[in-house]
Design goal:
Radius of gyration: 15 Å
Distance between the termini: 9 Å
Number of helices: 3
Helix content: over 70%
Strand content: under 5%
Order of helices and strands: HHH
Number of domains: 2
Largest sheet: none
Shape: flat
Structural class: mainly alpha
Number of strands: 0
Amino acid sequence: MNTTIWMALALVLVLEGLGPMFLPRMWRRMILGMAQLPDRLLHRFGGGLVVAGVVIYCMLSAHSGG
């Protein structure tokens, strides 16, 4: 289980790095645009990402028998 968590973290870092690596201008505009959003909207967006991540994790765990 410990290795799985580190592998998941590594994959997140790879995916997060693709934007600034390949599309730095677009990535910067997106970040600047997000900085202008109200806190409440960012809070909901972050919560939605957490819920989606937990659901995907649970689905994959159930599918793999773990």
